[in-house]
Amino acid sequence: MEAHNTLTDVAGIEVGHAQDDQALTGCTVILCRKGAVAGVDVRGSAPGTRETDLLDPINLVEKVHAILLAGGSAFGLDAASGVMRFLEEQGIGFKTGVTRVPIVPAAILFDLGIGDPGVRPDAAMGYQAARAASSAPPVEGNVGAGCGASVGKILGVKQAMKSGIGAASIKTGALTVAALAAVNAFGDVIDPQTGRILAGARSTRLGPIQAGAEGYFADTLETMKTLLGRTVLKVATRANTVIGVVATNAKLSKAEATKVAQMAHDGLARVVRPAHTMLDGDTIFALSTGGRQADISTVGTLAAEVMAQAILAAVKKAAPAGGLPGLNTD
């Protein structure tokens, strides 16, 4: 299987997007038609989720059939019902004796600050994204759950930058670990090699992007250190998050998948500064689709790396939209 540096490099994973390009919102579905052992870890303090309790290792259900990532804030959780309808039509779901119930955990991000806040992902959009899912390399940037995403919102959304959805994968021997992330962070996205800000809060609402230009970025961390920083939090956008999925062909139990999801957050914290704040709802799911034997610490370490790379891809491939500048100007 040829690798494409994306989530679908993991066998058994399909990805589909649907979005409203005018309203700047959308959703992304990660399908596991044969089921996948799953775990989740929520680190942000403002999450919006569905069906995450069943992923606790002590609970009954072992496998999920899809993960939904959506915009629209809590309204966007409605899109999961459309994913369930699609899966039910395919005869996919947890056997209950009387019917099959598709298991579709979900996480949302707040993208109502740009575009049309009255338009949100709904059941029809969720169905559309599920129907579009395939094992082909998914489009990245301003699509799906990343359609209305932005980063760097300590000075409000008007001084933020456009972000999106991105992916990455690592293959070592027979082991593959991959990630997909929709990046709507409160903080700035940092190049881990140089420590410089790639995308984040801008010190001015005007002017073209000048990478590395003196004074272009407000620097969220430095702003928070100042007296102004304590004051400016009153105008900061209060609904932010990074939501994503890591997947592997390693054989994992629910407890091991949960550990991998926990370790994947290390990658998030590597490239988002600050991360896991009271104003973020950072949530990462982990999926195991295969039977490869692998050391869990190794899988988790690779999960952190691909999550970091997926987040970087999300900002690098985001085009300007909603009055916000983006790095992808092609």
User: Could you tell me the mean pLDDT?
Assistant: 93
Radius of gyration: 18 Å
Oligomer: single chain
Helix content: 10-25%
Portion in strands? 25-35%
What's the number of domains? 1
Our count of helices gives: 6
- Summarize the biggest pleated sheet: 9 strands, mixed
CATH class: Alpha Beta
User: CATH topology, what is it called?
Assistant: L-amino peptidase D-ALA esterase/amidase
* Global outline: globular
The SSE order reads: EEEEHEEEHEEEEEEHHEHEEH
Number of strands: 16
In whole angstroms, the N-to-C terminal distance is: 30 Å
What is the CATH architecture assignment? 4-Layer Sandwich
Which segments are poorly predicted (pLDDT under 50) over 5 or more consecutive residues?
none
CATH superfamily: L-amino peptidase D-ALA esterase/amidase
* Estimated structural class: alpha+beta
What does this structure look like?
Helix 5 packs across helix 6 (296-316). This protein is α+β, with helices and mostly antiparallel strands. It has helices spanning 79-89, 123-132, 220-225, 227-232, 254-271, 296-316; strands spanning 14-20, 25-42, 49-50, 63-70, 94-95, 100-101, 106-108, 150-151, 161-162, 165-172, 175-184, 188-190, 197-199, 241-250, 272-273, 283-292. It contains six helices and 16 strands. The mean pLDDT is 93. Helix content is 22%, strand content 28%. It has one domain: L-amino peptidase D-ALA esterase/amidase (4-Layer Sandwich), CATH 3.60.70.12. It is globular and about 60 Å long. The longest helix is centred in the C-terminal third of the chain and has 21 residues, at 296-316.
